[in-house]
Each structure stands twice: as C-alpha cells, then as structure tokens.
Batch of 2 targets.
Target 1
Amino acid sequence: TKNDLDGIRRTVQSVIEQDFEVWKLAIVVSSESDSSLDYARQLSESNDKITVLIPDSLGIYQGMNFALDNLKPKLTWFLNGGDVFATKSVLSKAVKYMTQYSPGILIGGYSITENGKRKLFVPNASKISARRFSLNIRSGNHQSMLFDFSGEAEAKFNLNLEMAADFLLVLKRLRNQPAVRVPELFVEVEPGGVSSTYIEKVWIEKQEARREIFGKYSLDYLLGIIWTQGVKLKRFSRILICKFKRGN
C-alpha cells in the first residue's frame, strides 16, 4: 500500500473479521507513505498477528517479493491496499478447498465496481492447466488466488515485467501442477489498477511470459498471439459501438 489510508483500513478490517482465525498479516508499506504507515505500525503494536514491512522501493511486485523473502510463508494470499474479502468466510472456505484438492494455486472469483456498475467474475469448478490459464482472459488475478509456496515451488515475481509478473508466476507453477478453480466469490477488487490503465503493455508482457514458458516456436506461443489479437479486436469493437451509441 502507498498513500491509501482508507483503502488499507478496509483491507485490514476484512482480514480481521474472517471467521478463520489462524492467519498472519504482513502489511507492506511504502516508506514515502502518508499516515498509512503510522496506522500500520499502531496495528502491529496492538496485534501480534500483524507485521509491518517497509522495503527500500515499492512497486507491487517488489513489495510482494519483499514479504516473501522476509516471512517465508506457506499458504499465501496477496491483496492490494483497498481490496477486501467478499465475505467473512472466505479464508475458511479456501482452506477447506486447499485441504480437499491440494493444488499449488486455488483460484476463486472476484468482483470490481466501476462507474457504479458491479462486474462479477466467478469461475466454474475445474482444474486449469498452463495452456488454459494462458488463453483465458478471466482466469483470475492474484487477489483472487491462494498460493501454496511450500516445498520447492516457485515463489518469486519476475521484476523485469511491470504488469504481468503475476501471470508469469502462475504459468511457471502450472507447468508442474494444475491449479483448481472453485465457484466462490473471494475478493472485491479496488478499481483503477495500473494493469487496467496500461492494457496494451499488459498484452505485450503476457506474450513475453508465454514465450518464456512455452518457447517462441511452440503451439502455445502461437495460440497466444492469435488470442491476443482476438482480444484486441473485441475491445476495439466495443469502443466503436460505445462511440456509435453516444453519437446517436
């Protein structure tokens, strides 16, 4: 979190209210933050489940790597400041699913409210391979995922990617073990993330991730190119339709 006191308050409250009580919360706060840093420190002093981490520099992926390096967690959930769990039973349900299926990643649904409209993205129950995740625009985002970083699993975000390091991390882990998707709404995501603002850069970096995982001359890399062009065409068509409607 950085300069979002109201957002981090909402996030922390949604964690504290969970009916599953075996958790620890690491709040990664920019050293250039507003009163969010004072708020986080006060929390950690009054609650031994809460830790404050202050990295030298703070991008989203740098902050998450900093937490991984310092805490060496097993089951890990990444929330951005302002994101909240959808209900008070998200953690308890997620842990039950992890016990039942033992996936490397558990993927649930998320919602986002923009311009007064709430959009829901809740998946059907299924296992999901690296290929399927790679070609599914609604595969999920890191806020709707519970990672199991135990054992020798990949547990670092590639900082060479500014927008799609979470996408690459998931693909790396799916090479060895499918993820499991469940039809549960896990998280309400705060709108206005950088990935939605710089969508063209996201598409480019996702294709770089596909090339690293599948190889430049693989069928999966080619399918990624075709998929990306299809998504671009769909988005362009929607923009044209909206302009046409406004014009009439």
Target 2
Amino acid sequence: FSLLLKNIPASRYDHIARLVDESKAQTLLEVGTGTGESALLMIEAAQKNHKTVMYHGYDLFRELSQEEMFLERSKQPWSKKLVEARLAHTKAQIDLVAGDTKETLRSAPISDFVFIDGGHSWDTIQSDWKALGIQNGTVVLFDDYYYNPPEEVGETGCQKLIDSLDRSIWNVEKLEPVEFWPQPWGNLQIGMVKVWRL
C-alpha cells in the first residue's frame, strides 16, 4: 500500500512537468496562462529535451469583474506584461495572445502539448476544445475535472466535455490526486485528466 502512495504526486500540478517531459514536447500551448506559473513548469520540462522551446499562452490578460470570475470559476489573471517578465529568463520563444479564446484560439498553432486551464464554464471549455483541433501525437491535459454531483457544480468544470468524448477516438486518463477546494457549501473535488487520440 505504501508503494502505491509513492506513485501519486503530492499535487495535481505535478502532472504538468511530468507529462511534458514524458511526451518530449517542444511546442507548448496553454489556455489560461494566469500568472505564468504553469508556463514555467512546462517550459522548464521541455527544455530538458530541447534547446529551443516554443510556448503559446492564451488568456484575457486583463482584470476580470466579480461576475466573470463567478461565471468562469476563475482567478484574476496577471497582465501580459507581468507574465512576459516572469518568463523572459527561460529564453524560450514566448507567444502570449490576449483576448477571449472564443476568438483567439481559432488561429492557434498545432502543438505537442496542450494544457487547458482557462475559463471553466461549459460554453468556454467546449469552444476551446473545438477550436484547438487536436492532432495525433498531441497530449492534452485538462485541469478542473470536478467529481462533485452536477447540482453542486452546475455547468462549470471540464467533466461534461470529458465524459462526452468518444472513447473509440480518445484515450482518457483521470489522474490522481483529487484535491479539495473549500466552498461555502462544502469541498469542491478537483482532478486533472490526460486526453490523447487513439
């Protein structure tokens, strides 16, 4: 039993660097750059295998209203300028794209590794997934798969999209650990999910 526990990461975010490294990804794309913390993990992991790494980060890069944060179950993102400064020392090629992903992802490049952690409403997640046009060989990591019943989480989280994927086309792996985020009504149970084409 103790050996099994050693294989479970301390944090769900530990999967980001591990999967980038395992996939030998060189071109990275993130939906929901936020503070650039996950971008750093991705870039540093990719640089173990490649001298040149390309990172594409998509976010609003502006202050969100309280209503937007509630609807998308999101935190305040940093400005584009702050994220650029945070990532500059990596020497990776950085492409930060500001705006609503319902518009900006339409011209997103094909990437080896995609991390989806942007807006959490059903409309946003569905739109992001359709716009990306995932190819064979691309590993997609989703954050915010909620294990709570629908009456607690409503139309937020990626679980509705993940659960609707055709398993004859997509491999879907739900990753441990499931973490808890306290809410006024109880704990939100959150995990990550790895998806790739068969």
